């Protein structure tokens, strides 16, 4: 798991830009729960999908 995927971190899904910006809600091992602007709450397997962490200053 990426150490930057902690609750509160802002991320984007590389294959679903239409989901918009997401905020990590929880991160337990490879299971990352993210609340996306246009997709709602989604459970991501970080072994399969590499979320892109967004710099909070760029939001």
TrEMBL record:
Keywords, comma-separated and alphabetical: Plasmid
InterPro entries reported in the protein's UniProt record: DUF3553 (IPR021938)
Native source organism of the sequence: Azospirillum lipoferum (strain 4B)
Protein name: DUF3553 domain-containing protein
